[in-house]
Amino acid sequence: MSTLEIKDLHASVILDDESTKPILKGVDLTINSGEVHAIMGPNGSGKSTLASTIAGHPKYQVDSGSVTLDGQDVLAMSVDERARAGLFLAMQYPVEIPGVTTSNFLRSAKTAIDGEAPSLRTWTKDVRSAMDKLKIDNDMLQRNVNEGFSGGEKKRHEILQLEMLKPKIALLDETDSGLDVDALKIVSEGVNRALQEDNTGIMLITHYTRILRYITPQFVHVFSDGRVVDQGGSELADRLEDEGYDRYVRAAAK
Amino acid sequence: MSTTDQTARDTQDADEQVNGVPTGEDRVAIPGMSQEGETLQEGRNQAGEPEIRHTEHGDVSGVPDSSRAGRFTSYDVADFPPLSPKLEDWRFTPVKRLRGLDDAALQGPAPAVSVSGDDAVEVTSVGRDDSRVGSAGIPEDRVSANAWSAFREATVISIPRDAQVAEPVIVTFTGESEEPAAQHVVVDAGTNSKALVVLRHVGTAVLSQNVEFSVGDGANLTVVSLQEWTDDSVHASSQQAKLGRDATFKHVLVSLGGDLVRVTPSTRFTAPGGDVAMYGLTFVDDGQHLESRLFVDHSVPRCRSRVNYKSALQGENAHGVWVGDVLIRAEAEGTDTYELNRNLILNDGPRMDSVPNLEIETGLIAGAGHASTTGQLDDEHLYYLMSRGIPEDQARRLVVRGFLFEIIQQVGVEALEEQLRASLEDELARTEN
């Protein structure tokens, strides 16, 4: 049983001219193993900033507040230490890394997370089996990381990593964007496997409700202007589908 | 990348424009169009045709030196002006460090040639009057012309017609003198032959070298030119290829060692269907000047060229230069070309000059583009790897090796690739440890 606890988190984005702009304005959120929390909200409300700040992206700085994983101070850790502590971020825009094969990358990541190289005998079999379930061609292993991948392939590759690295808490940043309905189902099944088999806690960031047809959240948090402005159970998502975000956007503008 | 990123991909369709000049179906040839909008009018006659200059030997030369890609050629040193940083061709080269290659008599001993490989390939030493000498190229600069004047015997590596040579031919040039020397090498790939030839330069030399590749109709030739000289060596190498109909030529340049190494590979097509891929990898350490200037001359229809050059640089006064000139002449309809240059600055101190030049004189091409980037390791690459638990130093190693090894993979000789990876590891150990 693991707990990610975010308390009164304030964070800013560091712009190209080194100036900063506050984005997160006091976020409180607690995610336990096996739970699915949907973070919903209009574009620009700070959802992705929340995920990137927790993962430690260098473009974001924490101004105040705390993030802990099972009591450990996440904000004091480097990016790689956060991952080794059990956090995982499925990126919205995974970058291409020339010259590094997916096979080499996956093995290096697994070795780093586990602290020892995976067993040669089972590793390849496990990877191939996970790829088959996600309907990823095996030749992806010989291709360079994300290089020339389609949008759908990049997202499936993120979920492949989620399944192979088995984090305690996973942050999925708009994993549903750019996917057609078939791909969305396949990706959702992967997330559900991580939930059931590894008891991973999930923070599911999304703009749209359609992924929630396949992944059922226990908690829905509505984000607006850098903070949680409403929360409830999965019925809140249904209401958002009908009404949209207008109510929250207008409230924030007042 | 953290500094510059200029990318262009111009695919030709009706009504398309290249740099603001219409290149659509009305078939406007654009005399003098270049990436900088320069004009080629100077040196052309009224019909817009290039004027042909004749040297005193009566040799016919090409387009005069009025644009970067249309270059003057001559066998005679005296036809070229003395080297000066004011000349476009030499603006980046530290001329004083050439140690006389541009005007000395070049009477030193040329590096010794040794060959290993398939018996089907004939390696001979011939006189200047052999018909294969001069078959693929006329000197394009003063240093090359100086070597042409000075060499006594040429090494000819001959791949017979129709021969399919399985084993790589490794030609090792071992330099043992700092006296300025000249050398001439011809690789003659017969019609429909297939072979891989490695030109490996080791030892100490002050050398101006002309290397000709004559690639026959339907032939498939891969050449790997390795410059692994000692740190005090100086090497200027003009490597000119001439491709026959449907010929395939792959040129892989790897420059690691030497005080000053300037390789100028050129490719010319003589008939349609030619395909050239030119790869380069230079690793520039403190104090080194490693320069690659390439030229692809699309003068006939329906040929294809791909260029991918990379450099890694580290240390004070490490200076890398890449100039990629691609010329698509008016008659070269259906040309498909793309050139790419990527440079990785590993620490403070190096300087990289990267200049892609694309000159397009016809709109009827399949595609033409170039891209050039120079910068430090990409933070986003490191972040992605680290976000998967990979420690920063290991993430750096993965990204740097990924960058460099992409070109090594093109060599195609496993034992040699292994040695080159080991050489790169030695180079990297200087900044990583």
Provide structural commentary.
Chain A has helices at residues 47-55, 79-85, 102-114, 120-133, 151-165, 181-198, 234-243, 246-253, and strands at 3-14, 20-32, 36-40, 60-69, 72-73, 87-90, 97-101, 144-145, 169-173, 201-206, 219-224, 227-232. In chain A, the strands form 3 sheets. Chain A has a 6-stranded mixed sheet, with helices on both faces. In chain A, strands 2-1-4-5 form a 4-stranded antiparallel sheet. Chain A is 37% helix and 30% strand. Chain A is globular and about 55 Å long. The longest helix of chain A is centred in the C-terminal third of the chain and has 18 residues, at 181-198. By secondary structure, chain A is of the alpha/beta class. With 433 residues, chain B is mainly beta. Chain B folds into 2 domains: 4-376, no CATH class; 379-433, no CATH class. Chain B has 4 helices and 19 strands. Chain B has a 17-stranded mixed sheet that branches. In chain B, a hairpin with a 2-residue loop joins β2 (17-18) and β3. The longest helix of chain B is centred in the C-terminal third of the chain and has 19 residues, at 414-432. Chains A and B meet through α2, β7, α3 and β8 of A and α2 and α3 of B.
Question: What key phrases describe this protein's structure?
Answer:
heterodimer, A: 254 residues, alpha/beta, Rossmann fold, six-stranded mixed sheet, four-stranded antiparallel sheet, 8 helices, 12 strands, B: 433 residues, mainly beta, 2 domains, 17-stranded mixed sheet, two-stranded antiparallel ribbon, globular, disordered N terminus
Question: Termini distance of chain B?
Answer: 24 Å
**Count of β-strands of chain A:** 12
Unreliable runs of chain A, pLDDT <50, ≥5 residues? none
Q: Specify the number of helices of chain A.
A: 8
**Biggest protein-protein interface?**
A-B, 29 and 24 residues
Categorize the overall geometry of chain B: globular
- Order of strands side by side in the largest beta sheet of chain A? 6-9-10-3-11-12
GO molecular function (chain A): ATP binding; ATP hydrolysis activity
Domain ABC transporter (chain A): 4-249
Organism (chain A): Kocuria tytonis
InterPro entries (chain A): AAA+_ATPase, ABC_transporter-like_ATP-bd, FeS-cluster_ATPase_SufC, P-loop_NTPase
